[in-house]
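Input sequence (186 aa), recorded before submission:
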Amino acid sequence: MDLELDTLRTRGRAPITISATYVRDVDEADVAALGLEKGSKAPALKRLSDRHHALARAISSGIPPGEAALMCGYVLSRVSILCDDPAFQELLAFYREEKDRAFRSVQDKLAGMASDVLDEIQLRIEEEPEKLTTSQLIQLASFAADRSGNGPASSTTNLNVNVGLADRLEAARRRVKGRNVTIQAE
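Predicted structure, token format:
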């Protein structure tokens, strides 16, 4: 049984035979035509599937198209074609707007909550200042000053000092030299 292992291909595509025939010389019009749009365009999406929605959500959330393609089971060239489709572009815009709306909603809630808490603190300070301890007042003042840009400035300085490094290196060289040790490079 002859397996012909010398023709066994382990990588890549099998080579194909290319043939060419002379038709005519290439002129300037042919070269100019290379830059023109070929007119090939993918057909418009007829229906948006769940995969399309998942892909649009992933891309609109900031995931790079290559990663989104892998997550949703597409090849990158298909994602590129989909991103040019008007229906898919509209879907992307919808999910971007939804993401922005949700983010604004959370921000609005947090800002409202912070405002309510500050109003409550202000009310307690005005109506019943004796119920707040000195340490609580100091903490509030420190927090308010810090958040308003008037807090204490802090700076950190890192200092590395190598004292006597040259002397220690010279002493180590003398110790090695006194032992008659030869270091060979391999």
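Checked by second reader. The chain has a mean pLDDT of 81.
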